[in-house]
């Protein structure tokens, strides 16, 4: 019979789960109070690993803690209102995505907690006064004339950039704008003083072309 190890970072919830498992006389499940962001090397490699909270990136330690042919089910946090559940199969030296689905989970906490979903307010960014008068390129790029269509059609691209591009930012024009369909996105490099904004019908570059 297999063994299940379940980590819970909130002490009260861990204790409740431990009590429920004991009362139910379930012998192959162990509830551990702690932070799983570093995995559980003592008992690895595992046939299956499941995240029950959303992350912006998968902690690298899990690559070595899943058996070849095993599966990692994780939830990738995507800015603008949703998460992406992804099932990954462990190959020899990489994970291969086999299934994905939109979902909504609580955010991960603990050692590797990541940034919040709050967008950057463009007009109050320290470099905006310099950027706004230094447009270097403008290209037509049709997403859709309606903000809701832009929001929907750019979802997959935002998801990809959010995972692979460290300079990805979500933007809004005003601090009090809480409607995600009004937000837009881009790449911002403070060191190079370079900004690219993706809006409804065009891409605009500021600062320089690096």
Overview of this structure, please?
- This protein has helices spanning 11-23, 128-131, 147-153, 155-164, and strands spanning 4-8, 29-33, 46-55, 66-78, 82-90, 95-103, 120-121, 135-140, 168-172, 184-189, 194-198, 202-206.
- The protein is elongated and about 65 Å long.
- Helix content is 16%, strand content 38%.
- It is of the alpha/beta class and 210 residues long.
- The strands form three sheets. It has a six-stranded mixed β-sheet with strand order 7-9-10-11-12-8, covered by helices on one side.
- The model has no long low-confidence stretch (mean pLDDT 84).
- The longest helix has 13 residues, at 11-23.
- The chain has four helices and twelve strands.
Structural descriptors:
single chain; 210 residues; alpha/beta; 4-stranded mixed beta sheet
Present the secondary structure layout:
Elements: E1 4-8, H1 11-23, E2 29-33, E3 46-55, E4 66-78, E5 82-90, E6 95-103, E7 120-121, H2 128-131, E8 135-140, H3 147-153, H4 155-164, E9 168-172, E10 184-189, E11 194-198, E12 202-206
Parallel strand pairs: 1-2, 3-4, 7-9
Antiparallel strand pairs: 4-5, 5-6, 8-12, 9-10, 10-11, 11-12
Can you describe this structure in just a few lines?
The protein is of the alpha/beta class and 210 residues long. Helices cover 16% and strands 38% of the residues.
**What is the element string, with H for helices and E for strands?**
EHEEEEEEHEHHEEEE
Rg estimate, integer Å: 21 Å
State the shape: elongated
The level of helicity is 10-25%
Structural class: alpha/beta
Uncertain parts: none
Distance between the termini: 56 Å
Beta percentage is 35-45%
Q: How are the strands of the biggest sheet laid out side by side?
A: 7-9-10-11-12-8
Mean pLDDT score, rounded? 84
User: How does the major sheet shape up?
Assistant: 6 strands, mixed
